[in-house]
Specification:
Blueprint lengths: L22 H12 L4 E4 L6 H14 L4 E6 L6 H16 L8 H10 L1 E5 L6 E5 L7 H13 L5 E6 L12 H11 L4 E6 L2 H9 L10 E4 L5 H14 L6 H11 L3 H14 L5 H21 L6 H13 L8 H4 L7 H13 L3 E4 L2 E4 L2 H8 L2
Parallel strand pairs: 1-6, 1-7, 2-5, 5-6
Antiparallel strand pairs: 3-4, 8-9
Helix pairs in contact: 1-2, 3-5, 4-5, 10-11, 11-15, 12-14, 12-15
Length: 373
């Protein structure tokens, strides 16, 4: 595999060499897998959850202990959408470009009413599913489960952004996935998501189908003491120096959100030598300027007052009590009841999170951008 030109990778998973230490979390995932437990992994977005899961899959593959299929449910709006996403991922995963599609996979494709072509660029299968008119979603999941259960090497299914199923119009969506998991106990499942409250409630409330059906782990930010040597080593290998003070500045500005740490380091690495405060600040401004069209568009999703509350939270970098006079008066927000209503909307739309007893913005770049207005 070709080595990346810049070691601070921003998209996808390359190899363990470019993955910063998550040894405890990897060991936890391996323990769940090795003892045939299903797992739940949740974190706020941009914390490296997806890359960790792909690192876990790579670890299984290298040790020939299993193979993982990663399925992102973000953007799905119904159980039918999810069904298509799952079936397509499985068919693509087992369609081998060099060897072609095996007889067992062809039987599966036929049973699903799917058609398969070949991508002329990658050589991988292109799947078109026309299955819902012929059979139900549960029957489709059963066919997929039977196919996966026959594999010689155990299979792990990761359903990312799993909280999305709560928004489906089908009230039985959670129960459908739970039944699939129960009916095929030799298939391992990892349910991952970025909505803390929803993920916890799905797997801890007695009235929900997934109650106590999986082990749960929250993915926290990497420790600066772990991340700093990792970053420094790549600069040193290329004859560049980055001071601890600069790393501390990056960690503070990004609030240890993994993607933004990687982005800042990626840009600094590309700048060459002479990394100092001025260059670091220049990189921060470059990042914000590039994101301005997206960040400014968020204002259209909120009312004027909701935007005002969001801006106040950004300026203060969060608060434990947004309804207190100490927060309301300096920010000229008026009645606490109005702020409370706006806050609930901001939380529901995931602009604001309540984490460790503090209300703060979910997106660090949005917070830094608002602080400059």
């Amino acid at each position: 595999m070709r080595e990346p030109a810049n070691p601070f990778i921003l998209s996808g998973y390359h190899s363990p060499k470019y993955f910063c230490n998550r040894d405890e979390e990897l060991a936890w995932l391996m323990d769940q897998y090795g003892n045939e437990r299903n797992a739940v992994l949740y974190s706020w977005r941009r914390m490296g959850k997806t890359v960790l899961l792909k690192h876990f899959f790579n670890h299984l593959r290298q040790k020939r202990m299993g193979e993982g299929i990663f399925i992102d449910l973000m953007g799905t709006a119904s159980l039918a959408d999810a069904n298509n996403r799952v079936a397509s991922a499985i068919i693509r995963h087992f369609g081998e470009p060099k060897k072609g599609i095996g007889s067992e996979l062809m039987k599966l494709i036929s049973s699903l009413g799917a058609t398969v072509g070949v991508d002329p660029l990658s050589g991988t299968p292109q799947v078109t599913l026309g299955l819902l008119g012929k059979q139900s979603v549960p029957a489709t999941f059963e066919a997929l489960g039977e196919f996966l259960s026959k594999r010689k090497i155990p299979v792990v299914i990761c359903l990312d952004e799993f909280q999305q199923v709560v928004n489906y119009p089908e009230t039985y969506a959670e129960a459908t996935f739970r039944t699939w998991m129960q009916d095929f106990p030799m298939i391992r499942f990892v349910f991952s998501g970025s909505h803390h409250k929803m993920m916890i409630s799905m797997f801890s409330e007695k009235s929900r189908p997934f109650y106590r059906s999986a082990q749960i782990l929250q993915l926290n930010p990497l420790s600066p003491t772990v991340y700093a040597p990792f970053i420094r080593s790549f600069f040193q290998k290329n004859g560049k120096k980055i001071q601890q003070a600069t790393l501390d500045k990056i960690f503070s500005w990004t609030r240890m959100q993994t993607y933004y740490v990687q982005l800042a380091c990626n840009k600094l690495y590309a700048k060459g030598e002479g990394i100092d405060d001025a260059l670091t600040n220049e990189v921060f401004q470059e990042i914000l300027q590039q994101e301005t069209p997206i960040l400014s568009s968020y204002q259209h999703l909120l009312t004027t007052f909701q935007w005002k509350v969001l801006s106040a939270l950004a300026r203060t970098e969060g608060t434990e009590n947004p309804l207190s006079k100490d927060f309301l008066i300096p920010n000229q927000l008026g009645a606490a009841s109005s702020v409370s209503t706006a806050l609930q909307t901001l939380i529901r739309k995931e602009f604001v999170v309540h984490d460790n007893g503090k209300y703060t913005l979910h997106d660090t770049l949005l917070m830094r951008w608002l602080q400059q207005l």
